[in-house]
């Protein structure tokens, strides 16, 4: 028997129509140090996709995959879903759990890493949601899972598949650029965040593309230009690869679990455009998404916690 009576899938949230974009961005940046110009620019990125982020669709698919994994292993645990910044909000999920009589839930967050943005900010959001709901269940975040096979194996396959997309004559020794969301250098936990990313990058590179050069770089920096963030930026890195005589790159977004807007715009539009102008062949590896192996993680992390080996 597990000592939890529900799983709560916790994600970031994203707009699902043009009218959602500005209120969503206001939610995300409330109290954060993000210039208004940056907000307008990011709003345009969402508008290019009809004001719809793919992230909520990914969460629906992941929730279904987790439910299928629980059912296949005889684990009778309801799965709820709530977001930090958009509907369905965490507070609504917490209220629904309370109304269903849930007392103690485990939280699986759609971020594999430590650090303030990638971990602690989710815990804060869960606690804020609980504070809004009298009689809220206890909610414990499951541990980070960047080094678990359920996260790493789909990435290994994705890099192999991306390499296979390159024209054969560009494939041998093509460099890999592992990317993650940048964070301010002053952000608590950024060293652990960067160190965990490097662990995944090294492991995936070794497994999927032994002998290929690789580097960990950053994308999607925000904040005022005067504030230092983790570098190098992926765009500058592509330029350096080109200057060093490379003619192809495999971009691998190891910092994210699904192909949401930072992947679809910041990589597939923006970074791909930089590569195109440099004449660098560009392929991008898929993130785990709703891969069934990824969907085993909530169950296996729960089993570690409770000693239940289902
Ligand atoms: C480390 C990290 C992850 C990875 C971990 C994880 O996955 O959680 C991540 C994920 C995501 N970030 C997302 C969206 C945004 N992040 C922003 C702003 C910021 N992100 C930051 C960090 C991270 N972000 C930081 C330090 C800021 C500056 C403001 C602040 O200090 O908080 C802004 C405001 C505009 C801008 O400044 O770019 C937006 C719209 C979406 C949803 C995408 C979609 O809609 O499909 C996702 C999954
Ligand atoms: Fe972000």
Automatic annotation (TrEMBL):
Xref: Gene3D superfamilies: 3.40.50.1400
Pfam family, one: Ferrochelatase
InterPro entries, sorted: Ferrochelatase (IPR001015), Ferrochelatase_N (IPR033659)
Catalytic activity: Fe-coproporphyrin III + 2 H(+) = coproporphyrin III + Fe(2+)
Keywords noted in UniProt: Cytoplasm, Heme biosynthesis, Iron, Lyase, Metal-binding, Porphyrin biosynthesis
Annotated compartments: Cytoplasm
Domain of life: Bacteria
Main localisation: cytoplasm
Binding site for Fe-coproporphyrin III: 53, 122
Entry GO CC: cytoplasm
Molecular functions per Gene Ontology: ferrochelatase activity; metal ion binding
Protein family per UniProt: Belongs to the ferrochelatase family.
Entry function: Involved in coproporphyrin-dependent heme b biosynthesis. Catalyzes the insertion of ferrous iron into coproporphyrin III to form Fe-coproporphyrin III.
Protein name according to UniProt: Coproporphyrin III ferrochelatase
